[in-house]
Amino acid sequence: MSTLLWIIITTLLISLIAFVGVFTLSLSDRRLNKILLGLVGLAAGTLIGGAFLHLIPEALHQMEHLGHVDHHDTVMLMVIVGFVIFFILEKFLWRHCHDKECKIHTFAYLNLVGDGVHNFIDGLIIAAGFLVSVEVGLATTFAVAAHEIPQEIGDFGVLLHGGLAKNKALFYNFITAITAIIGGILGYFLIPEIGDFQVYILPIAAGGFLYIAASDLVPELHKEHRKSRTRLAFSTFIIGIFLMWLVKFTFEGGLH
Question: Where are the chain's structural domains?
């Protein structure tokens, strides 16, 4: 299968996650919160595993292969740059409301704009991964998908609380999700034309993954004090890391 086809299929699957919100409408708040906690733990684990097991090692390998001087320092600096970029983007665009009572009637549409930018960048990151190898592309896609599921459920709730009807909320959420496909296709054609650009996208994406896990997801896990749910969250967190290792083991025969 060609690289472009991999990118189109995976970004399309990422876009379809936008419809996950509709399946939560029949769930009780208690069941939904339990499911979300497990998904948040899984997302945190896959993001951290994807950053440390795939994106950063691959960036180091590529920079060394290209003969970059002080490639270790360059990669780590790019990881920090990615962390800071995602901090700025979340501060001004991706302000997710974690309080069910928050007033977001006028904010619902701004939330859609922020998600559109977010998903477009996700598409670029996925394209950069597949341009390196199928392994890095799949690992990146899985990490993106894992954190998109709880996020899309939350975004769907934000739109409903903002006064949008269910059908309209699903439609708008999907429209913003399609930007991942646009980002993926543009990334496929543009990244190779910018020389070694994907070498820098990988550690920047890793910094973004680490930011999302550290600032948004892990703090949510700490809010739960019940032992049974804490065990659930920790278990899915470890499963997320293990799945990232499994992808590496499958394609590379283990850690090197």
Answer: 3-10+51-252
